[in-house]
Design goal:
The complex is a heterodimer of chains A (about 500) and B (about 300). Chain A contains 16 helices and 23 strands. With about 500 residues, chain A is α/β, with parallel strands linked by helices. In chain A, a hairpin with a 2-residue loop joins strand 1 and strand 2. The longest helix of chain A is centred in the middle third of the chain and has 16 residues. Chain B has one domain: ABC transporter involved in vitamin B12 uptake, BtuC (Orthogonal Bundle), CATH 1.10.3470. The mean pLDDT of chain B is about 90. The chains are: A alpha/beta (about 500), B mainly alpha (about 300). At the A-B interface, helix 2 and helix 3 of A face helix 8, helix 9 and helix 14 of B.
């Protein structure tokens, strides 16, 4: 096989950190090549250089034997390199066809483009209506928009950045069928992910990055997932464990909860019912944007709901605001770390004060006790191994994983009766994720009712006692997590969202 | 009181003239806001345009050169805003307010020698037979060229946003600057162009006041027209034809209350003068009552600072 794209000694440094240090690899025609690594290993920077969004400090690339150094993404697209982004680069208020036109160099007139979109979407088994507003689409459909945008330009190299993090298992199958067909036609696919089983199933070769360097390259299906994980992290991983005790009396009861969304493209909650017992972890799965944020808001008190729909030990608390709920030990850690769970420009001490003032007695008659807040922040930092010079540092200055440990720790140490967390380990490296999961298990062990909302199914299967899925604002009936198959979970999540499974023409 | 003194034909004809300055300024601001920038300095750019246009046409004797100078003046002022907010990344709201104050002061300074002077007159267009039509001729075909320019501008902006690729890119930048940047569009450059256009149109609107509608120069003569233009953009939920409707509605109430005052209606003149503003507030409240529908047409990244950090 001859190399289609060859990367040699690519280096990129940012102030204080070398994102890529002499990275080299090559990818052949028709090859599905995985880039593996933890967050911060430099995967994103590397593909941004290939796509022309970032210029390398040194090193060179060749495409089909010719030197390749795109100064901007449009040059990369002209050379036949296309990219599907991790955070979709889509515009909610524009239609599918308009979104696709924006990503093309020389789009045909709208009417012809709509025809082309239908044609390509049928060829690759990705049904899509060009006239719909992107804001109304499910995550899986949005990804189709991105993929079709790339396919219309007949790419030689297709870069996929974490494409499956927002898909149901059935949608992943459709995506893989499409990618295999593309590879069979000679397109090289650069596939970034940290989902090891998927990489083992899909990819021909893998390059593993750690701290900006290539540490290994291998054939993924010859390795086990555990071996791949060790190459990524560079150390053995401890799996969270729990003693396992029988759950106690019901603590949090939610019944018939409905909540219209405040945002035009948000999801309204419809008739949600579940119970969480003391010492139990309820895992709530589902693709992003199916009501996760709204559900957290309803339980934390950010969005007041009808009093009877949320009960704590049988008492109606639906109408109470967040402060009153904190007083009765109903705590929450929202998904967005910067701006929702923590105030970015405030110090860790101030951030500790913000949610812990009531339960930790950090304020008397409106006056703040700063030494006590500082002591509490230090306690969180010690107990959860938050790597920071001290509690005086701004929340913004912490890495995602460290801030996440702080945010979760801050709530865990307040001895909650009910704790709701959304995406507790999103964007957190494997070892920090393991310690966060362990702390949630320990908390449940001590008798707290824990609700974990997450899009990471592996995580939910690992820690939850019972599992339910959110789909378009509705919650499926919770089922014991043990023994659930991936297919059953996928169906609970809404299957392929009303789309027939692709029949890819061979 | 004598309501028969109000001639509906003249009323409608003069509402078109009364609406033109705010329509021009609001059309410019619509483009600015569609690109995701909130420029609260419309009032300042309008009054700067008013004096630049007035001074230039007095000096040269040509109204056309006056309008040109007004556009240049408004655009130049808007570029200060553009530099501060897009390049130096200052806060858009504070900078826009400062721009209004600066424009009011600057125009007073330039205008010191011009108070009480008369600008060269601008004649209505001679549209021949059309102007002689009964009623219609008087209402629609007896105006100066700028009235028709403002109407054409609304149509052009509508077509630009709806049918052209450049218009699509502009909307995309206002919708999500991060995504537009990821696709390789030059967010800051596109926004600067939009800001410049907005400034030129605000200047043109100001000059229409000082050269045709009033026509003379007095300090602070825009008297809040720029703020009304800003409100109109929201009222129109960022759609050009609705903007025209809103501008004519506001102009109509302004002209009507003047006529009512003249006819001696038994309501204090202060209340009548306040009606256009009260109606604007009322309509804005009604418009924004349905939050999610209003948000559907608003540019999602309106007023957010963009920093290319990748």
């Amino acid at each position: 096989m001859t190399a289609l794209l060859k990367v040699e000694g690519l280096t990129k440094a940012y102030p204080g950190v070398v994102a890529n240090d002499h990275v080299s690899f090559e990818i052949a025609e028709g090859e599905v090549h995985a880039l593996l690594g933890e967050n911060g290993a430099g995967k994103s920077t590397l593909v941004k250089m290939i796509y022309g969004l970032v210029q390398p400090d040194s090193g060179r690339m060749t495409l089909r034997g010719a030197p390749y150094a795109p100064p901007e993404p449009s040059a990369a697209r002209r050379a036949g390199v296309a990219m599907v982004f991790q955070h979709f680069s889509l515009f909610d208020a524009l239609s599918v066809a308009e979104n696709i036109a924006l990503g093309m160099e020389t789009p045909p007139p709208m009417r012809r483009l709509a025809g082309q979109i239908r044609e390509v979407s049928e060829t690759y088994g990705l049904p899509l209506n060009p006239d719909r507003l992107v804001g109304d689409l499910s995550a899986g459909e949005r990804q189709r928009v991105e993929i079709i945008r790339c396919l219309l330009q007949d790419p030689r190299v297709l870069i996929m950045d974490e494409p499956t993090s927002v898909l149901t298992p059935q949608e992943v199958d459709i995506l893989f069928a499409t990618l295999r067909k593309l590879a069979a036609e000679g397109t090289a696919i650069l596939y970034i992910s940290h989902k090891l089983e998927e990489i083992r199933a899909l990819c021909d070769r893998a390059t593993i990055l750690r701290l900006g360097r290539v540490v290994e390259s291998c054939t993924p299906h010859e390795k086990t997932a555990a071996e791949l994980a060790e190459m990524m992290v560079g150390a053995k991983l401890a799996t969270p464990s729990r003693a396992g005790s029988a759950p106690g009396a019901p603590v949090l009861e939610v019944s018939g909860l409905s909540l219209p969304s405040a945002n035009p493209f948000g999801t309204s909650l419809r008739d949600i019912t579940f119970t969480v017992r003391a010492g139990e972890i309820l895992g709530i799965g589902g693709v992003a944007g199916n009501g996760q944020d709204e559900l957290l808001d309803a339980i934390s008190g950010e969005a007041p709901v009808a009093p009877d729909t949320v009960r704590l030990h049988g008492q109606a608390i639906g109408a109470l605001g967040p402060s009153l709920r904190r007083r009765i030990a109903v705590l929450a850690a929202p998904e967005e770390r910067l701006g929702h769970a923590a105030a970015p420009d405030m110090s860790l001490t101030e951030n500790a004060m913000l949610t812990a003032a009531i339960r930790q007695g950090l304020a008397t008659r409106g006056f703040l006790k700063w030494p006590a807040a500082r002591a509490f922040a230090e306690k969180v930092i010690d107990a959860f191994d938050v790597r920071t010079p001290g509690p005086g540092n701004a929340a913004r200055s912490l890495s995602g994983g460290n801030l996440q440990k702080f945010v979760i720790g801050r709530e865990v140490l307040q001895r909650p009766e009910v704790l709701v967390v959304n995406q507790p380990t999103w964007g957190v490296d494997a070892s920090a994720a393991a310690s966060i999961r362990q702390s949630l298990l320990d908390l449940a062990e001590a008798g707290t009712a824990v609700v974990v909302i997450s899009q990471d199914l592996d995580e939910l299967m690992e820690i939850s006692d019972r599992f339910a899925a959110l789909n378009e604002g509705r919650l499926s009936a919770p089922r014991p997590a043990k023994g659930l198959s991936l297919e059953e979970i996928g169906l609970m999540m809404g299957g392929a969202h009303g789309m027939e499974v692709a029949h890819v023409a061979e | 009181m004598d309501l028969s003194a109000i001639d509906p034909v003249i009323l409608i004809a003069s509402l078109m003239v009364a609406s033109t300055p705010i329509l021009l300024a609001a059309t410019g601001e619509l483009i600015v806001e569609k690109s995701g920038v909130l420029n609260l300095g419309v009032e300042g750019m309008m009054i700067t345009g008013a004096i630049c246009g007035f001074a230039a046409s007095v000096q040269t004797g040509s109204p056309a050169l006056g309008f040109l100078a007004a556009m240049v003046g408004g655009a130049a002022l808007s570029m200060i805003f553009g530099l501060l907010t897009q390049v130096l990344m200052s806060n858009q709201v504070a900078t826009g307010l400062a721009l209004t104050l600066f424009g009011l002061g600057l125009s007073a300074l330039i205008g010191q020698g011009y108070a009480g002077m008369k600008p060269p007159p601008t004649r209505p267009l001679d549209l021949g037979v059309l102007s002689d039509l009964p009623v219609i001729g008087k209402i629609v075909f007896s105006h100066d060229a700028m009235v028709y320019v403002s109407l054409a501008l609304v149509a052009l902006v509508w077509a630009f946003l709806r049918y052209t690729r450049a218009g699509l890119i502009l909307r995309a930048v206002g919708e999500s600057h991060e995504a537009a940047h990821a696709l390789g569009y030059k967010v800051v450059r596109i926004r600067l162009m939009a800001i410049g256009f907005g400034g030129a149109m605000a200047g043109l609107g100001g000059a229409y006041l000082s050269l045709i509608r009033v026509p003379q120069w007095t300090e602070g003569m825009t008297a809040g027209a720029g703020w009304i233009a800003l409100a109109l953009v929201v009222f129109a939920s960022w759609r050009p034809w609705r903007l025209l409707l809103g501008a004519y509605l506001f102009g109509g109430i302004t002209v009507l209350q003047l006529n009512l005052q003249a006819a001696g209606v038994a309501v204090p003149a202060e209340f009548l003068s306040a009606t256009p503003y009260l109606v604007t507030i009322l309509v804005l409240v009604l418009m924004s009552a349905d939050r999610s529908r209003a948000a559907l047409h608003a540019p999602a990244d309106l007023g957010k600072t963009f920093h290319a950090s990748s």
